[in-house]
Amino acid sequence: MFTTGNTYTKKQIYALLDVPDKKRGGIWDTGYVPYEGNFYLFVNIGIPGRTGHDYSNYWDGDNLHWVAKSGTHIGQPSIKRMLDNASGRNIHVFTRIHDKDPFTYEGLGYASKVHETTPVKI
């Protein structure tokens, strides 16, 4: 459905996933969202998000260092579901380095290391 290295706007992602109009926006604009059994992760690299939060996400080779939303902790249900590699859920990773640019699809991701901090760092 998505091609690694291609860029997508949220509008294009909604269309490809057939997200109903009433479910667009909202949680989709908060960094990560579960949808139809998978997770969609939207990561700003080196720039703050639209809310002004800058979580210091960065690439280290092929490894993405990502920080979840403010106040998150390892015991939260959404974080637990995302980190459950045995669940069969895919985590689709999208990144961007300039605000308002489309997101680049990086492919499927998984957590190789989790820091039990608040917010959670993966």
Task: Spell out the key features of this protein.
alpha+beta; five-stranded mixed sheet
Quick synopsis:
The protein has 122 residues and is of the alpha+beta class. 12% of the residues lie in helices and 26% in strands. It is globular and about 35 Å long.
Map the helices and strands.
Blueprint: E1 7-8, H1 10-17, E2 32-35, E3 38-44, E4 58-60, E5 63-65, H2 77-83, E6 91-96, E7 103-109
Task: Give a written overview of the molecule.
The chain is of the alpha+beta class. The chain is built from two helices and seven strands, in the order βαββββαββ. It has helices at 10-17, 77-83, and strands spanning 7-8, 32-35, 38-44, 58-60, 63-65, 91-96, 103-109. The strands form two sheets. Strands 1-7-6-3-2 form a five-stranded mixed sheet. A two-stranded antiparallel ribbon has the order 4-5. The model has no long low-confidence stretch (mean pLDDT 91).
Count of extended strands? 7
Distance between the termini: 25 Å
The share of residues in helices is 10-25%
- Please state roughly what percent of the residues sit in beta strands, choosing from under 5%, 5-15%, 15-25%, 25-35%, 35-45% or over 45%: 25-35%
Low-confidence stretches: none
Class derived from helix and strand content? alpha+beta
The biggest sheet, with number of strands, parallel, antiparallel or mixed sense and barrel status, is: 5 strands, mixed
- The gross shape turns out to be globular
What does the average pLDDT come to? Answer: 91
Q: What string, H for helix and E for strand, traces the elements in order?
A: EHEEEEHEE
Total of helices: 2
Please compute the radius of gyration using only Cα atoms: 14 Å
Sheet with the most strands: spatial strand order? 1-7-6-3-2
